[in-house]
Structures are given as structure tokens and as C-alpha cells.
Recover the amino acids of this structure.
DNA sequence: TCTGCTAATTACTCCGACATATTACAGGAT
DNA sequence: ATCCTGTAATATGTCGGAGTAATTAGCAGA
């Protein structure tokens, strides 16, 4: 038997060619396979309608057991990426069946070169949802919410967005706003999108200088929410989303 | 060995007690288990932090193989409902880790008695997103989009919402609007929410009379989109969402 | 041409064994 | 007494193979 594909086992020194699908410890094998296949689908390497090779063949090609391969397929099925039927095989579903808002799917989409149009779509969605979230937060926040936002803002100022601690504070700030909306659906939606988008932005950003000090714009949002001014909060948050879009766009056109 | 739980195998005539977790043909066994466990989690039967009994024990209790049980767990893991670690077991994750916008999770949530607050959250989200979608559709629709909407409206008029064909036409109408936004993220999000919410509304509605003829309100949306009037489209769609909320609320308080 | 049967293929399910990771506990050093 | 370290127990993770069931496609007959 000839090994044609890069192994997923870490105990093999051979790590030639292909995607770095080696699983580090702490990551399950089937998780690594789901990751690999998910990225392959999201990147267009497998197109909707394509049928994957049979279980036995593909599992052998990946040098994993059928169980591990099958569990990976179940994960992809759960996310609406593929569908399996006896005799017909496993085929990639049309894009409109994909759970594009699943955090993991988003991560896979952004792991490679994300489709520009899709990024635009996501920011359009953020531009709709986040100002509305800020509006709700301005109406429903309590003292505790404001305290958390204030602390996060202070931490952002201390560390700046260039450090991991600073970015964590940024996330905390936005999460605090979402939490103040008292709306779980809103929280889940925006948190996953924001995480995926921001993560890649930061990743690709590397040594690029930030276009503009983001702190004052954040403070404007905070002030509006603290003042209980829904309209102002929505407007200020809109500015923030626009800046993020600008930021991501400039990071992508390279 | 004593059988303590209702079987999931259809070849057993005994179908006593418990949820009807029997899998009809066409449904996979692990899918049925995921469905059963998913509903149990969403309904609060298992609370966040609870640890499930071990794989061997639970699989035996359900009278399925460990493989089938494990594949079901992978599905739940993919949806953020549970997390498994060696030695620690499989535990239900906190609610903020759940992929509440996953179509299947939504279906599970609405299969039982959905949490009132959660339903409110979803409608709040719809009230934010759908008018914005109508606004975009008014700006970007082409002749083909309008034709599909018009056909769907005609079908709605013909069949009324009391028939399955009429409800299908309603879905087509809304999907056409979402398609006209040219935004996949928007489409996936709203389609899954709308499907879950409408499905239960219709399900619980049964013999209840519709509060008001919905056709004119739909026509207002169509006219605004056809006229390319974003503001009017958003306003008209807002009315539609409000009506749906009213409808669902009255259907739930029984 | 259409309908019903047959057969082949593929995913699905089961089983039993072993490997691995993580936790918990015990013992010793500080 | 507290902290660290090594060790053992335990539940999940991975494996390989065997047999089942469902769906499709092709074929035969009306």
C-alpha cells in the first residue's frame, strides 16, 4: 500500500506536502478530519454536488479508521455541509444548506482565503444587527453591565489593540453590550460572527499599523449606552462597524 | 439484562411510555438518538453542567451500539450542546455555547414547550433583521425576483394559509425577498429562524381562526419592493413581523 | 413505454479490543 | 500545612472487521 496523502498522525515524522492537518494533542482525531474536510469544502476544493469517495477508500486514504472518518462526517452533516445516503454516497450540499453562521464553519471559511462577497455579507449583517443591539443595550443595561463595559474600556486603553490582552478586552466590551440586550439569540449570533471576523483581521494584520485610534469611538458607544440614549448608541455602534469593515477590507486586499 | 427505556428499534412492538423516539425508516439511528438527546437538553431535562452517564452505560440503556451513541454525541458536540473529555465524561455546556441558531437546535427547542423568553428573543431578532432585509431587497431586486414574489403571492391568495400549499407559498415569498438581498448570511439566518417559528405556530394553531387576512400586508411589502422604496419596504415588513409575533404569542398562551 | 422485480453498491450498525488523555489521589519535599 | 510530583484509575478515543439495511440502477415483463 502506498501512502499518497499527508498523514494525520503526529507520530510520523513525514510531514510532506498538503495542508498541515496533523493533529496536535488535545485535539481529537475525528475533529482534525472534520477540520480538514470542512476547510476543503469551504475553500471550494470540493464543490456542491461532488460526491466523496466511499468510506473505506477515503478513510484508508487518510490513514484513519472508518469510525474516526464517520464521526467526522457526522460533524459535517450536523453543520449542513454534506449529506450521506446508502448507495448514493456522501455528497456536498448546496451552499444554501450550509450553516454559515456556525462558529466552526465561520472559522473554516476564514482559515483560508475567505470569499470577499461573503465577508461583505457578514459585515452587512453586522451593520444591521450590532447597532440594533446597542440600541437595546441602552434601554436595558444595569449598573453591573456598565461596570463591566467600563472595566473593559480601561483595559483596552491600558493594553491597546496590539496586544492579546487588549483584544480580549475589546471582545469583553462587545460581549458586555450583547449581554445587556438580554437577548440570547442576538448574543450567540453576533458573538460568533464577531469572533471569526476579528480573529482573521488580527491574524492577517500582523505588523500593519492601526488606521486610527479606536478608543474614542468605543467611548462614544459607552457614553450613549450609559446615558440610556438608544438612538445615539445605535449611531455610534454603526460607526464602529464601519471602521471594522474598513479595517478588514484593507487587510484583505493584499 | 432488563430493558428499562423505550426502545429505539422499530422492530419492537413494545412502544410504551417515554418520548416517541422510535426511528422511522429513512431516519438514521444515530440521528434519532441525537434528536432524543437534543430535545432532552433543550427542554431542560439535562441542565448545563450535568454529566451524562458513560458511553457504555448510556448506549446500553438506549439499547444501541456504542458507535451509534458516539456518532449522536458528535452531532451534539458539533452544535455546541455538549463537550466530551476523557475521564471527565460528557457534560452539557452552558447555554451561551449552544448554537441556538442552528436549524436543528431550533427545531428541538420548538418541539417541546419553547421557552417564552427565547421566543421573544427570536422575534426581537426577526424584527431587527427582516425589515432590513426588505430594505435591501427593495434596492437590489431584479425582474426575476419580483416575478417569483408575485407568483408566490398569487399562490397564497389561491390556497390561503390554512393549507400546506398556502404556507409553502408564504415561505417562497419570504425566501424570494431574502434571495433578493443577495446576502447569503442574511438568507441562512432568517430562513432557519422563520422555518422553526412558523412551523410551530402552524402546528399549534390547528383549528384556530387566523386573526386577520394577511394578504394585504404581504402585498404592501411587495409593492414597496417593486417600487424600489426601501423605507416603505422596511416599514411594511415590520408590520408583518409584528403580526407574526402576535400570532405566535396568542398560539402559545394556552 | 411503463411498471415491477432483482441485484449490486454503499452507508449503517454492531461488537470487542486496545490506546490515550485526564483527573484524582497519595506521597514526599519544601 | 502547603505545594509539587509521580502514579494509578477511569472514561473517552481509536481501531479493525463482520454483518445489516436501504437505496439506486438495471433488467425483465406487461
Amino acid at each position: 500500500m502506498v501512502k499518497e496523502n499527508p498523514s494525520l498522525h503526529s507520530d510520523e515524522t513525514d510531514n510532506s506536502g498538503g495542508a498541515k492537518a496533523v493533529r496536535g494533542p488535545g485535539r481529537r482525531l475525528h475533529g482534525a478530519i472534520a477540520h480538514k474536510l470542512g476547510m476543503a469544502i469551504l475553500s471550494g476544493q470540493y464543490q456542491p454536488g461532488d460526491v466523496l469517495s466511499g468510506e473505506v477508500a477515503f478513510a484508508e486514504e487518510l490513514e484513519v479508521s472508518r469510525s474516526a472518518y464517520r464521526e467526522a462526517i457526522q460533524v459535517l452533516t450536523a453543520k449542513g455541509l454534506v449529506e450521506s445516503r446508502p448507495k448514493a454516497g456522501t455528497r456536498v450540499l448546496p451552499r444554501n444548506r450550509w450553516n454559515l453562521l456556525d462558529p466552526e464553519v465561520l472559522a473554516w471559511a476564514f482559515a483560508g482565503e475567505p470569499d470577499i462577497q461573503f465577508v461583505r455579507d457578514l459585515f452587512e449583517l453586522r451593520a444591521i444587527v450590532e447597532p440594533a443591539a446597542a440600541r437595546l443595550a441602552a434601554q436595558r443595561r444595569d449598573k453591573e453591565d456598565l461596570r463591566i463595559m467600563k472595566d473593559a474600556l480601561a483595559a483596552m486603553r491600558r493594553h491597546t489593540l496590539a496586544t492579546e490582552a487588549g483584544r480580549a478586552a475589546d471582545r469583553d466590551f462587545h460581549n458586555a453590550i450583547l449581554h445587556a440586550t438580554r437577548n440570547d439569540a442576538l448574543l450567540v449570533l453576533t458573538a460568533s460572527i464577531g469572533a471569526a471576523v476579528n480573529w482573521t483581521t488580527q491574524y492577517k494584520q500582523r505588523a500593519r499599523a492601526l488606521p486610527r485610534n479606536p478608543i474614542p469611538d468605543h467611548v462614544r458607544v459607552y457614553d450613549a449606552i450609559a446615558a440610556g440614549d438608544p438612538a445615539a448608541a445605535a449611531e455610534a455602534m454603526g460607526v464602529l462597524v464601519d471602521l471594522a469593515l474598513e479595517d478588514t477590507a484593507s487587510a484583505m486586499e493584499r
